[in-house]
Amino acid sequence: MSADPKLKARLGIALIGVALAVLPFVVGATFGNSWVRIVDFALLYIMLALGLNIVVGFAGLLDLGYIAFYAVGAYLYALLSSPHLATAFPALFAVAPGWPVWAVLPLGALVAGLFGVMLGAPTLKLRGDYLAIVTLGFGEIIRIFLNNLNAPANITNGPQGINNIAAAQIGGHALNRPLELFGVMVPGVHLQYYFFLALTLLVVFVCVRLQDSRLGRAWVAIREDEVAARACGINTRNVKLLAFGLGATFGGVAGGLFAGFQGFVSPESFGLLESVMVLCMVVLGGMGHIPGVILGAVLLALLPEALRWGAVPVQQSLFGKVLIDPESLRLLLFGIALVVVMRWRPAGLWPSALRKRELAAHGEAA
Amino acid sequence: MRLPSPGAARRHCTAQDTRRFVDILIQQIINGLVLGSIYALVALGYTMVYGILGLINFAHGEVVMIGALSALTAIGLLVPSGLPGPVVVLAGLLIAIPVCMAVGFTIERIAYRPLRNAPRLAPLITAIGVSIVLQQLAMMGWGRNYHTFPALLPVTAHKIGGAAITDLQIIIVLTAALLMAALVWLVTRTRLGRAMRASAENPAVARLMGVDVDRVISFTFVLGSGLAAVAGVMVAANYSIAHYAMGFMLGLKAFTAAVLGGIGNLGGAMLGGLLLGIIESLAAGYIGDLTGGFLGSHYKDVFAFFVLILVLVFRPSGLMGEKVAERA
Amino acid sequence: MSAPLLEARGISKRFGGVQALREVSLSIRAGEVYGLIGPNGAGKTSFFNVLTGLYSADQGEVRFDGQPLPLGVPHRIAGLGIARTFQNIRLFGAMSALENVMVGRHIRLHTGVLGAILRTPAARREEADTEARAHALLRYVGIDRLANQQATHLSYGDQRRLEIARALATEPRLLALDEPAAGMNATETAGLRALIEKLRGDGMTVLLIEHDVKLVMGLCDRVAVLDYGEKIAEDVPDVVRRDPRVIAAYLGREAADA
Predict the structure, then answer these.
(1) Which of A28, A77, B82, B294 is most open to solvent, judged by the fewest CB atoms within 10 Å of its CB?
(2) What's the mean pLDDT in B144-171?
(3) pLDDT tens digit sequence for B90-146
(4) CATH number of C89-171
């Protein structure tokens, strides 16, 4: 007697739910709290990857400047939750603005979304590779501005970045301080985890709903054949702008969370390499496939730590010294992974059935 | 040397002020020509590959970097030998060129050829991957520090009014011009050049006419990489330094130049390169004054990006490209 | 005589050195099957593409149901009621047949981002309706049994039918078919003819580009002939087939004089 598939699905979800709920405690006890921090970052990456997935995976628009939206969200949070504006513009800000997180995050999302539409608008008529280069250019322009907007008016504090960013506060409790719950002392990183998890689940939920909707179908149509999509009455310009805008929104939220978590932002966290890394997560995981993208994000979040853990001792034992430091090794492996995956598994590690069929169809047509 | 501000000019625009303005202008144009010649050489590599494969060879900038660094290594080894400076540099060049050609050949074979029939996104993502790999390998091989290019070439400056042009700059511009002329001769007057043009226009038909299109593609990559090597040495000599991360910006700007001139068009790449070099030079020189001190010269990188975006949005076929009619 | 459903006046279009269309004017009446024929290179597809928005016209205008048509904006033309198929079938290959037709419903639906995320009752109703209508359209063209098959796995003839179903999903007033019989054998062509006649019977106006002269002459109420970008005839098939200019265009001057 086999179990009813719906029951199996519900059981699966329940198990995952339990696992997610206790994850930080298990990880913290087994590996230490620094690994819980890594899990927190993994959640941020998942949000970023899902956002980019809307642009690259759903709509098929290769955006190489996505990290700019992360930066916008992060800097907005930083400006509204740190002493910077008060020190830089004492005439305008007598007291440092200390906006609550439930105001800053939506604002960050909105501003990032607007940037998404702004940056997407000029690219609408461009083909794949040109689109990629233009978005890359936009990403770089934003980074250069962040790096240089410290004179004549010190808006971003230039290469030094903005520090002393206050952590998010929920119910009056700052998330970077431990909280006593039911007699258990819950560390800050654990609290951040639950906060990030809630928002990540929201992002996943929104993406799943969008995928199976009129808009999601329009995105796939544009991806497959834009001319035919237009002939079906789809306003490709608006649909593409929606992709850019919505994708950017998630980046903005993740950016705000990042700023509050790290307490410090600087332009060097938001360069082309970071954009490529998020792209890696989407491409390697499985473009357009939400579980695949989550897998990609998790892998790429854990990989540098695994490398840091293992690369040095392995090299020591093999060669007697460290030939490649873990950071370079990570990047080298990234590059190689991109080439290898595109060659042998272009649909990604965990592609959707649709994507596999698309690639097969393309291969047949060639 | 600051430009007199417009207000000051109105108050007393002397002959001396005008001379200074012209001197700065001439100097910036000279610098722009030098920079532009380098951009043109690199842009040719991009445009040839795009013309024949429809692919933006993202990794091309890194090939320039490899040219610079391998030449530097060779030069470093030869300097103690006591040979005259120009000979050492030439030797460095003769080492860098085959190295880069080999790199270009390998990239095409391993990364791009298997993806000939893949959807558009795949070769571009692969190109990014190759670019990252090359950068990391270069960093592992040559380290993170900046390498100085020894002063081996004559730098006597010749005055033109209040501006100056050095021997090195003259050498760069002349060498670039010579190479470009040679390339044009190759493409227009030889059988191989015809094969290249045919493959770029219609590879299927070219194959039917007996052209080994795969060989032509390999050759295109090799040729572009050779030019990149020369450009790399020029950059290192002109700025006296080379660094493992120098390829990225340079590559992007050269690509902008190729697009500006009309991607796929050789003349366009050369024109675009020179134009971009001059635009960038003038912008770097005057941007502070133009924006009242709001934007400084460290924004000059942004200029290339703006040019790129403007061209792609308003005139994607570039200056010399044909406006492609939209036949369905 | 009622006003024509579609009226094109003085449409001219140039591609580089080639004048593809020279002041072409024609009118299509509601409910008729209107054929557009002519030798290769005559400008049929160019005209078709201007009508359906793929190209803008250099000169001239088109009025659809009395309103001027926004040339060069395909999605708005589709919204106004002109749907088209493509000569070399442009389906969304990896999607199923059903999903292809559901995409066709896009302009007649209203669910936006919020509706999709919140899955409001209105959104759910629309989704259910979309799926139902898609099935109905697949039944209409006769391929509902293939609803969950991947589009590229359908036979050529069935792919054409699918494309027609997708076009019908946009609720058009004018269905424009670009060489629908291309590459079809006699049986498939007969099936296509039956489908077009069924459409006419249900009140649809059809514009047809075709090379299959027998199909056109037997099926169409009226026919226009283009040659070198100019309209050289526009009348019922019997008159057109005997027009000396038409014969000359297809077969050369001697045949016309014969």
Answers:
(1) B82
(2) 85
(3) 999 999 999 999 999 999 999 999 998 877 778 888 999 999 999 999 998 898 889
(4) 3.40.50.300
Residue A125, domain member (yes or no):
yes
Query: What pLDDT does residue B328 have?
Result: 32
CA distance A186 to A176: 10
Domain boundaries, chain C: 1-81+172-257, 89-171
Residue A316 located in a structural domain: no
Restricting to B residues 247-286, those with a Cβ less than 8 Å away from any Cβ of A are: 248, 252, 255, 259
* Count of CB atoms situated within 10 Å of the CB of B189: 10
Q: Considering chain A, what is the average pLDDT of its residues?
A: 87
| pLDDT band, very low/low/confident/very high, at A353 (cuts 50, 70, 90) | confident
In-domain check, residue A232:
yes
Tell me the C-alpha distance between B198 and B256, whole Å: 25
Q: In this predicted structure, which of A58-62, A152-156, B113-117, C206-210 has the lowest mean pLDDT? A: A152-156
Q: Which domains does chain B have, with CATH numbers?
A: 31-314 (1.10.3470)
CA dist B228 and B222 (Å) reads 10
> How far is residue C245's CA from residue A137's CA, in Å, rounded to a whole number?
57
ipTM for the assembly: 0.90
In the predicted structure, residue A282 carries a pLDDT above the cut 50 = yes
Chain C residues with beta carbon closer than 8 angstroms to that of A246: 113
Q: Average pLDDT, whole number, for chain B? A: 86
Distance (Å) from the alpha carbon of C200 to chain A's nearest alpha carbon: 21
The CATH H-level superfamily of C1-81+172-257 is: P-loop containing nucleotide triphosphate hydrolases (3.40.50.300)
Given a contact cutoff of 8 angstroms between Cβ atoms, the answer to whether C42 and C250 are in contact is no
Do the chains contact at C15 and B325, CB–CB below 8 Å? yes
Range of the domain at A227: 22-270
Whether A45 is in a domain gets the answer: yes
Whether residue A321 is predicted with pLDDT greater than 80 in this model: the reply is: no
Contact between residue A255 and residue A73 where contact means Cβ atoms under 8 Å apart: yes
